[in-house]
Amino acid sequence: MPNIIVLVKQVPDTNAKIVVNGDRVDLSSVKMVMSPYDEFAVETALLHKEAAGGEVTALTVGGAAAEKILKDAKAIGVDHIVRVDAEGDMDSNALQTVLAQAVRTLGGEVVYCGKSAADTGAGSTGPGLAERLGWTSASNVIGASFEDGLTVIGPNGAGHAKLKVPLPAVVSCDKGEFKVRKPNVKGIMMAKKASVEVHSIEIPPSSVSLVGHALPPAKPAGKTYDGGNAAAEVAQLLRDEANVL
Amino acid sequence: MTQTIVIAEMNNNAVHPSTAELVAAAMTFGGAPTVVVPCTDASAADGAANMGAGSILAAKSSAFAHYDASGWAAALDAVTPQGTIITGASPQSKDLAARLAARRNIAVVQDAVTIQGQQVTSPVYSGKAMQTVALNGPAVISVRSNIFNAATGGASDVQVLDTEGNVATSVVEFMARASERLDVAEANIVISGGRGMGSPENFSHLEAIADTIGAAVGASRAAVDTWEAIPHSMQVGQTGKTVNPNLYIAVGISGAIQHLAGMRSSKYIVAINKDADAPIFQHADYGIVATWEEALPVLHDTLKSMMA
Predict the structure, then answer these.
(1) Are B232 and B251 in contact (CB under 8 A)?
(2) Closest approach of chain B CAs to the CA of A193, in angstroms?
(3) Which of A1, A71, B206, B237 is found 20 to 30 A from B134 (Cα to Cα)?
(4) What rounded mean pLDDT belongs to chain B?
(5) Which residue range(s) make up the domain with A203?
(6) Helix (H) or strand (E) holding A68
(7) Which of B105-119, B175-189, B262-276 comes out lowest in average pLDDT?
(8) Do B119 and B209 reside in the same domain of the chain?
């Protein structure tokens, strides 16, 4: 029976407006939520457990405020919730080193995560963690089945392929076929009472440092036309002014 | 000067033209980079000629027959010189970049759009902000397409190195794409429909225009969530695909933050919407306030005569 770990990250609500104050994003008035792709990862981890047994541990790295998303995961059925205590910026190297140590401590055999976090959009954590652990990885998967070992559906060239993934492995999840379950009242009550296991891990130095944030360069105002007939003029401009046709 | 290496962007075992953009990005660090071509047949590396490379290295291995993250990272690591490594920013290349960086215990910076000195800028929060970081050592950097102008000239001779990597995953079955259409993430022109299209059947009007100008057809999240016939693979936006085409045409799409996040970096944006107050117009280079029923036939007829 596999010991299943799912990585979750707290990020700003994807519908939130991002404000830059000075040269840093200001998230003080933004609602924080579980990164959307991590929800698919939690769902896949729970499906894996339902098919093969074992237990699911949700793991996050962050400050105490990040515990809310662990409770959200608990409310829909994960068994254990663990937070590695850390604040501040880490580069990919530092974060993956910390996660690798946490996964070794927890003794996982399969790790699920979102294909990328909604804040950085990088998608480095899953494959980077796998490399550090010396594990197999499959990324951006849109479906998984658990009979006769782990089989996933992932992108391949212009289409998809069904891949057999030997464990131990890290699997990053895209939207695809996953429908995320909703918590019920009992789950929410249980999650409220659940205690978070907090780990302290020494954080290695980062070789990439944050210089600053800025808003994307504003676009000069465009031209607006009234009525469908203007489409003819716009098509001409796309060719003659924008040179994109 | 530190050595800079480009891992060629591959498509069906051929060097993708965007590799020349990666070479240009690598040149910002000074000097012409070594281009490493992952291939099963070394002749594929000839495709990297005239892309501005300082030298071309064919990394030949059976491991490159199908993408396997650990096998590719191991096989490339064995033959790629030390230094800063540039890759493409397709989902597969970002995955490889992360794995290669972890293997060398160096940092990875994804989705670069600007490189200046040792500072690299990438969009974060799905393009709602830009983040600049400073490198204090070698790193793996994935670079977005359509940003750097393709490099030309340079090496055409290929050095072949055999390498190997242990491929862990095995393909059980290749699954054909549901649609033979271009993928939104790969197209130079994307035309997308939103819920304003009224029904999924009306996407045929977008497809007809797409066929005329060689575009891919995309959709907003609202359209994907509302109609089962519109697959998630077409979705452009924060929880769908991020696109960066030369031309993006949004039809019946209001321009929710979710959607803007996936397409705002397009070079030119055309919006067609009947609601003059739709937020999409604030991001459009050319806005047409009209129903799609009014605008699309005119647009299609004009494009057809222009392409003829």
Answers:
(1) no
(2) 32
(3) B237
(4) 94
(5) 3-220
(6) helix A67-75
(7) B175-189
(8) no
Give the position of tokens 């089989």.
Answer: A151
Per-residue pLDDT tens digits for A11-55: 999 888 899 999 999 999 999 999 999 999 999 999 999 999 999
- The 3 state secondary structure assigned to B200-219 is HHHHHHHHHHHHHHCCEEEE
Q: pLDDT higher for A175 or B49? A: B49
List all residues of chain B from 33 to 52 with a beta carbon under 8 Å from chain A. none
Which pLDDT belongs to residue B127?
87
Whether residue B134 sits in one domain with residue B87: yes
Closest of A225, A238, A229 to residue B306, by C-alpha: A238
Q: Which among A20, A135, A239 has CB closest to B306?
A: A239
Whole-model pTM? 0.90
Q: What is the pLDDT of residues B239-258, one digit of tens each?
A: 888 898 999 999 999 999 88
A123, A158, A207: residue with CB nearest B107: A207
Kindly give, in sequence order, each residue whose CB lies less than 8 Å from that of residue A85, ignoring residues fewer than 6 positions away: A63, A64, A198, A199, A200
Which residue in this structure is represented by tokens 């695809």? A176
What are the angstrom distances between the C-alpha of A84 and each of A51, A59, A202?
28, 8, 10
Is B168 inside any structural domain?
Answer: no
